[in-house]
Specification:
The complex is a heterodimer. Chain A has helices spanning 3-14, 29-37, 63-76, 96-101, 112-121, 138-150, 165-175, 187-193, 200-205, 216-232, 251-260, 290-293, 309-313, 345-351; strands at residues 22-26, 48-52, 79-82, 106-108, 127-131, 156-160, 182-185, 209-211, 237-239, 261-268, 272-281. Chain A is α/β, with parallel strands linked by helices. In chain B, α2 packs parallel to α5. The termini of chain B are far apart. The chains are: A alpha/beta, B alpha+beta.
Chain lengths: 354, 333
């Protein structure tokens, strides 16, 4: 889009006169940050309220997951390999960062393949990859695992905390705690899942939605189009990211996932157990399933009572409404995961506060 | 097999003597290095500026430079951004036992090239060897002396002043991060390590106190440096997103890893705060130097968010650029 056009559409959004106040939810954490980062949120018209959805994988990972990873490390002396933004997340009793500072070897990797490479090079250690993510990263994990299996790398396993986003959005609407008029659906996730996977929004919940990319123009056009759908009572999904999102999704990637994983229930921080929202490794791949390979005695899961991450993840409050926000809980000393992850709502509000 | 640094290279004995005379002095030049306990120099008229910095980068050789070149350029730039002319450097080497002498030679030659290009001299130095594992291959300390001229780059900053940068931002930090982590998608990235003294001298001599302030945007990048300037002051610094020069390769890596080039280190970039009426002329002069080829006005001083740095985005939204809380970590998706 030409610069002049971008400015024209920004003006259109800024000066848009809503018929009534509207709540729209962006599901994806990358969108949460993009709305702040591009300044598009700053030009929202009066009455348009953006509610952050549960789309930050680190944020929705319940304490029990990290507790288990830490316990596996302690009881079996494995080397944990993780994406960078997991290391500061406080678990019930400690964090990976604290363990690291105490001298425990924790590998920060950019891709599960890097973790597999370490396992191949260092045969005498057990590498456990912390597989936390949504539909966007799961295929890479599946491919890595396939490679590990093919090459018979038996000192590599994954602890799955992978989650599926559509069931979480479905659960939020079923809970009915927060009134949402329409959704901006995740562009990257939809590349994998396809747009049809979101049809439950108009069909079951009568919610109009748009699938949008992440550039300023995408955010502006997506927002304007969603407002238009809501105001016109057009209950449908408009895919504005057609250049990469198809109706059926990426069959190849989905095939990899189906080959290795079974759908299961998953525990989401702040929301609870959502049926069919998680993935577990198929039984025949138990050797690569860290949970089965390294049985542990789990400590009692403890959540900080004053942390309101849960309500933030359910869209009930905004981060500044949490009493810990910016005082006790900061990116340097995070209390909840939403303050840790780059894509977390609290982190974004803190970083971009004025 | 390659010759290695031994503990005896630092014990004050014969081997150390050979290392210093045959390698270090030979490269830096007999007329330059004084082998006495201290060097005696004739600085000239005016106030002295004096600075020191220690360089510990991994990897020691990287796309666009190496630790030796960095150690010269970094200290030269610390002097130049004050509005002074750098003259003399010291060179303190801390070498790890077992370090390749061929690598040391390469680093020293690179330092020599850098001092020649910057027009300064290394006049004194020190060499220590420490046991294997005590340092990572080589650490270099350089101290530098420069002379203040008739002007200074430490003047009052006022609303309306322009903010200039001498070229693309984030090149060094993102290039090193990509190289360190062997990112396969990082082709075409390169450090921007460069001495800025010639360019800044020309700007200072021509525009004097119209240049209100200059700082090299090293650790923490442009955003952090400007935060230091704006912090607890009654003005704010506004950057304009569409004016920011960022190489496509740098943007690419940043987008994938969730990093921000505004917070990535530079080793050949400075931000200048100048009188707005002179800004375009200053940019024109900067562009006549290779290290200022892409110089551009990127923002201005205003009063909108006192004490803060902010950016006006492409869509004319405003976003605060806060002080960095932590190291930037790559994200999950």
């Amino acid at each position: 889009m030409e610069k002049d056009q971008l400015i024209k559409y920004s003006e259109l959004l800024k000066n848009y006169s809503l018929k009534r106040p509207l709540n729209i939810m962006e599901v994806c954490g990358t969108h949460t940050v993009a709305f702040f980062h591009t300044g598009v949120k700053d030009i929202f018209p009066e009455g348009l309220n953006l509610i952050d959805g549960p789309g930050c994988p680190v944020c929705v990972t319940a304490n029990g997951y990290l507790d288990r990873a830490i316990q596996i490390q302690k009881e079996h002396e494995v080397v944990l390999a993780t994406f960078g933004d997991m290391i500061k997340v406080p678990a019930s009793y400690t964090s990976l960062q604290k363990l690291k500072s105490e001298g425990v070897r924790i590998e920060i990797v950019y891709s599960p393949m890097d973790a597999l490479e370490i396992a191949k090079k260092e045969k005498d250690i057990e590498i456990v990859f912390l597989s936390v993510g949504f539909e966007t990263t799961i295929p890479t994990e599946a491919v890595t695992l396939k490679k590990a299996i093919e090459e018979n790398v038996n000192n590599f396993s994954i602890l799955t905390g992978n989650k599926l986003t559509p069931p979480a959005v479905d659960a939020l609407l079923t809970l009915g705690e927060v009134k949402i008029d329409g959704f901006i659906l995740p562009g990257h996730v939809s590349i994998i899942t396809g747009s049809d996977n979101w049809q439950f929004l108009p069909k079951k919940h009568s919610k109009p939605s748009v699938i949008s990319g992440f550039e300023p123009k995408d955010l502006i056009m997506g927002t304007l189009r969603l407002v238009q759908l809501i105001e016109n009572g057009e209950i449908e999904i408009d895919n504005l990211y057609k250049e990469v999102v198809t109706e059926e999704g990426n069959r190849l990637a989905l095939g990899f996932i189906e080959e290795l994983f079974d759908v299961t229930d998953a525990n989401w921080r702040g929301i609870g157990v959502i049926p069919g929202s998680g993935l577990k490794l198929k039984d025949k791949f138990s050797l690569y399933d860290a949970e089965k390979k390294f049985p542990v005695t789990m400590p009692e899961e403890v959540e900080n009572k004053s942390c309101r991450c849960g309500e933030i993840l359910r869209g009930l409050i905004t981060p500044p409404e949490c009493p810990l926000f910016g005082t006790v809980c900061t990116p340097r000393e995070p209390v909840g995961a939403c303050m840790v992850s780059f894509e977390g709502s609290c982190s974004a509000y803190y970083k971009y506060r004025k | 097999m390659d010759e290695k640094i031994l503990m005896a290279h630092g014990n004050g004995g014969e081997l150390m003597g050979t290392l210093i005379s045959d390698l270090i002095v030979d490269i830096f030049g007999k007329d330059s290095v004084q082998l006495d306990d201290s060097a005696i120099v004739e600085p000239g008229e005016g106030n002295l500026v004096f600075t020191t910095d220690t360089y510990t980068i991994t990897p020691i050789f990287f796309e666009g430079g190496d630790i030796g070149q960095l150690a010269v350029n970094g200290t030269v730039n610390d002097i130049a951004v004050m509005g002074a002319e750098p003259k003399f450097l010291s060179c303190g080497l801390v070498l790890e036992e077992g370090f390749d002498i061929s690598s040391l030679r390469k680093i020293l030659l690179s330092m020599k090239n850098a001092v020649d290009y910057a027009g300064v001299r290394i006049v004194t130095g020190d060499t220590k060897v420490v046991e294997k594992g005590s340092v990572d291959k080589i650490f270099i300390n350089t101290s530098g002396i420069g002379m203040m001229g008739k002007y200074s780059f430490r003047n009052e900053i006022n609303p309306g002043n322009a903010v200039i940068v001498n070229g693309t931002i984030g090149d060094h930090g993102i290039s090193i991060m990509a190289e360190r982590n062997k990112l396969s998608f990082s082709k075409g990235l390169s450090s921007d390590s460069a001495p800025l003294n010639h360019m800044l001298l020309a700007v200072g001599e021509k525009f004097g106190s119209s240049v209100r302030f200059v700082r090299d945007a090293t650790r923490g990048g442009v955003a952090s440096v400007l935060n230091e300037v704006a912090g607890s002051r009654d003005f704010s610094i506004k950057l304009i997103e569409e004016k920011l020069p960022v190489r496509a390769e740098v943007n690419g890596v940043c987008e994938i890893l969730g990093l921000d080039p505004l917070y990535a280190a530079n080793e050949g970039k400075a931000v200048l705060i100048t009188d707005s009426g002179k800004a375009e002329e200053i940019v024109k002069v900067m562009r006549t130097f290779p290290e200022g080829r892409d110089a551009v006005v990127i923002g201005e001083i205003d009063l909108d968010f006192p004490g803060r740095v902010y950016i006006e985005t492409y869509v004319k939204g405003k976003r605060i650029l806060p002080l960095l809380q932590e190291d930037q970590l790559p994200r999950i998706c």
